[in-house]
Write a structure and sequence with these properties.
20% of the residues lie in helices and 26% in strands. It is an alpha/beta fold and 251 residues long. It has a single domain (5-250), classed as L-arginine/glycine Amidinotransferase, Chain A, CATH 3.75.10.10. Strands 2-1-15 form a three-stranded mixed beta sheet, with helices on both faces. Strand 4 (76-79), helix 2 and strand 5 (103-106) form a beta-alpha-beta unit.
Length: 251
Amino acid sequence: MNFKYAFVREPSDEYKRCITSHPLRNSIDINKTRKQHAIYCQTLSDLGLELIKLPRLNEHPDSCFIEDTAVIHNNKAFITRMGAKSRRGEVKSVEKYIEEYLEVQKAKKPAIIEGGDVIHHKNYLISGITQRTNQDGVNQMAEYLNIKVDTCGDPEIVHLKSYVTYIGQNTIVVTKRFSNHKTFDKFTKIVIEDKESYAANTLAIKNTVLMAEGYDQAQLKVKEAGFNVIGLNMSEFQKCEGALTCLSLLF
């Protein structure tokens, strides 16, 4: 997966108030969170990406999860209308930076859509229909970006990319929940066991796949498929139900 730029945003002072039901949410350490974020950013830079660092948005606890604010494809950015109403204030501040680089259009009511639901393939997209994305959002995105969008519906989940990510070479990393879904029949599948399901959210840059540390079997499967793997400590982001793809907008 070839990208040149990455929008990123440091975790806010109010990060502990993120939207989450994780049992360890009360143990979030903001200093540790920011250290993990800094290592993540350095890793992107080491892999050749130019980072565009947006200022901290302290009034929005989830604002470091910048992926949800836009879907970028072929020099166009579709600015989302987030399913989580409390996060909609994040979008305006991101939009003003994106429009310096790309043509933009905003999702319009009744659409809801978040970038965490959208899997990028070279020739098309795959979008979840979930708690955070509806069909109106998918339709508006497909029309503006002028691209085919396949869908995978599951109203019980928050974001599709918590369960499925594309890593290049027609290969996906997928949990058992979606391993037999017809939308993914055309792909080579690396199926992750339920006990390591968090590791299904990967971030592919060229032939390197970033994965969460602590999920050895998942990492081994990706390595055996011929990919380079870099493990990153994502503990504080997992407590806010965020992951690797959530922390950047790549283009």
